[in-house]
Amino acid sequence: MQSSGEETFGAPPAKYRGAVERVCDQASRLLEQLLAYAFVGAVLLNFANVVDRYVFARSIIGADEIEVLVMVGTTFLGAAVVTWRNGHLRMDVLARALPGPVRTTLKLAKIAIFVAFVGTAFVESVIYAQRMFILGVTSDTARLPMWIAHGAVAIGLGLMTLAVVLRSVGARFRRDGGARAMTIEELHVDDRSRS
């Protein structure tokens, strides 16, 4: 066991670990606020479109497309915020009943599977968004560049993968100079205790 003053091999110094978490916390709060404004904008656009349609018998061209694209972006970018805060729903009744080493193995497998699948979806989304950009594809009515919406999906998936990796690496070196990895539940408890 190392003394509390020593750094674990491969771990960033404690001052940088805290700085990375603070930057990610601030970035997630900023992203959450931007998404809230985008959502409010979509709701106001919807309201204006309803008034325009039923009061003036006309419609705002492309309003529905804009609303859908905002919702897609909000969903995937918002999922990154939820992932960073470790706020996803989980069914862990059976997992909690398992012995410690089996639980740890299961948690590591969940992290590996998440990174593999979401990381792969991220790569494919980046490729698709690039194709949309190169081809100059736009939405049918509003004529918005489709690479923006597909790029938001890619960014959301990339941020989700990054959040899981940063949380996992940060958990590995957080306690006792990195003597053991924190569990997903401990990450969740730590997140709530900081709020």
Structure commentary:
With 195 residues, the protein is mainly alpha-helical. It has one domain (14-194). The chain is built from 6 helices and no strands. The protein has helices spanning 14-56, 63-84, 93-97, 100-135, 146-174, 184-194. Helix 2 (63-84) packs parallel to helix 5.
Tags for this entry?
disordered C terminus, 6 helices, elongated, disordered N terminus, 195 residues, mainly alpha
How helix-rich are the residues, as a percent range?
A: over 70%
Spatial shape: elongated
The residue ranges in which pLDDT falls below 50 over 5 or more consecutive positions are: 1-12, 175-184, 188-195
Percent in strands: under 5%
- How many runs of DSSP E, i.e. beta strands? 0
Terminal Cα span: 31 Å
Q: SSE order, as H and E?
A: HHHHHH
Number of domains: 1
Radius of gyration: 21 Å
**What is the mean pLDDT?**
81
Largest sheet: none
Number of helices: 6
Helix/strand-derived category reads mainly alpha
